[in-house]
Design brief:
370 residues; six-stranded antiparallel sheet; 9 helices; globular; five-stranded antiparallel sheet
Length: 370
């Protein structure tokens, strides 16, 4: 059979919803895939499409345009000069880990008495330069046994800008934290009992293990440990709605803000002045994998609280711009939790001169389930 005869024989025509036949009547594959002859797939270059499904008057159209949120809101009369959309991408040949990182991450969760929204967005300067997002986030469940006791783990990590592999370090720090917190037997007990000393010991042990493994990872890639430098902030929330204590631990800078009754409290864990009561670590300069201890707090939640755990890509403009504080207070105050797409749009509120990666996990406290 010559090439023209073969091409004619393979003129595709639909038969039934499950497959096709060639024009000479011989069966082909029944899943819509190209036929394979002598190990090579045959192209489907001229198959017929079924008639489009539409109403009597043509394609169905809504009476009004599909709603669109558009560009994020911004402070001041003029928006920042960078476009508020993804720009250049890192190349695979330069750094595969950087190239496959998404520009935007959106996540969330809901449990009795709790709602979570989380987002991480590549900063304007990184978008413009085609550099990876160095921030990371994690929303997951850890711990638990046959008696229950599971915890919601909310984490953000901010890769140090000068560290060439910090985008790997931030994601690994979140992953390793989940792994080790999941195997901790004392976390839930210390939070439930309000035992701050025991919680501190457990947190320090977890941070040491994360630091050791990040250092090992650097050696495996013939890198210095500082190449993977990252901060890490974690909030641990019991899924039992009767327990109102939350465990907080942090290595390095970032923000932990509280929105209560419409008012912002921007320094609920003492970040502004460092940790004056502890000689373990300075929260303004510390980073994994070098750090061997954590700043910890046990926080008491009230119904209606909105707790914001963030990297400094959000905490800095939130502290420095009243317009952002007012906008997010209006958006996030109260029991009504924004839909994920709405949250992402609100979260990207723009403030001129703040162009770093931005990451936050926001926890709505609805109170004990009835």
């Amino acid at each position: 059979m010559n090439e023209s005869e073969e091409a004619a024989r393979l003129h595709w025509t639909p038969t039934d919803p499950h497959g096709f036949v060639a024009s000479d009547g011989s069966p082909t594959v029944r899943d819509g895939s190209p036929t394979v002859r002598d190990g090579a797939p045959t192209a489907r270059d001229d198959y017929e499409l079924p008639a489009p499904v539409q109403g009597a008057g043509g394609p169905a159209l809504t009476s009004s345009p599909v709603p669109a949120l558009g560009a994020p809101a911004h402070s001041g009369p003029k928006a920042p000069s960078y476009p508020p959309v993804p720009q250049g991408l890192p190349a695979v040949t330069g750094d595969l880990a950087a190239a496959v990182l998404p520009d935007i991450v959106l996540d969330g969760a809901a449990y009795p008495g709790l709602s979570v929204r989380a987002a991480s967005v590549r900063g304007d300067s990184h978008r413009y330069a085609g550099e990876p997002r160095q921030d990371a986030l994690c929303v997951t469940r850890v711990g638990g046994d046959e008696q229950g006791g599971e915890l919601l783990m909310l984490a953000v990590a901010d890769g140090v800008g000068s560290a060439p592999r910090s985008h790997v370090g931030s994601n690994e720090a979140c992953r390793l934290a989940a792994r080790y917190l999941d195997h901790s037997t004392s976390l839930h007990e210390s939070i439930r009992a309000g035992d701050a000393e025991r919680f501190q010991r457990t947190a320090d042990d977890v941070v040491r293990q994360i630091g050791n493994l990040l250092g090992d990872l650097a050696l495996q890639h013939s890198e210095r440990p500082d190449a993977f430098a990252t901060t890490l902030r974690i909030l641990l929330v019991p899924l039992d709605p009767r327990i109102r204590t939350r465990g907080f631990l942090a290595v390095g800078d970032g923000g932990t803000a509280l929105l209560r009754r419409g008012y912002w409290h921007l320094d609920v864990v003492g970040d502004a002045d460092g940790d004056k009561d502890s000689d373990v670590i300075d929260t303004r300069t510390a980073a994994l994998p070098r750090a061997r201890g954590a700043v910890t707090r046990l926080l008491h939640a009230h119904a209606g609280d909105v707790l914001v755990l963030s990297t400094d890509g959000l905490s800095s403009p939130l502290a420095g711009d009243a317009g952002m504080r007012d906008f997010l207070a209006d958006a996030w105050n109260g029991d009504e939790v924004p839909a994920p797409a709405d949250f992402l749009w609100q979260f990207q509120y723009r403030v001129k001169s703040y162009d770093d990666d931005r990451t936050a996990v926001v926890l709505w406290e609805h109170g004990e389930a009835q």
